[in-house]
Input
Amino acid sequence: MRIRDVLVFSSIAASTVALGTACDLAQALANGTGDGSEAGASSAEAGPDAAVADVDAAARGLIDEAGHGEHFSHGLGHGVGLEIHEAPMLGRGRPGTLADRVPITVEPGIYLPGQGGVRIEDTLVVRSGAPAAAPVMLTTTATATARELLVL
Output
């Protein structure tokens, strides 16, 4: 009997959930984080050779404008492949560029100490020929997009 080599690729996705009715603060955090996520994904449409720091800045800028810049304390995302955290690392001041056909995450978050927070994690594939060839979004759900606050 022969055993074949199998490559298993990683994936990352998250949803933000509120039980009962979401308070105004939870909805505002979800909206602000969602806006940052969309800005980061749109910035990745520049395609290969887009600076990873610029992709981070696009998301971080909207979150900062919403008054939560100090509450977004980590990098925007990273490459995904055989390992869950691979190059390129998308973050403030990080060197490097995006590459064609490389899966990356866009995962901004706003965290209020002692109150809670929201993090959105999307995985997309950068493609050449952008913006006509927008990144391919790999994370979606049947009930809500990863950017929507899911109220149970």
About this structure: DSSP finds two helices and nine strands in the chain. The CA atoms of residues 5 and 82 lie 13 Å apart.
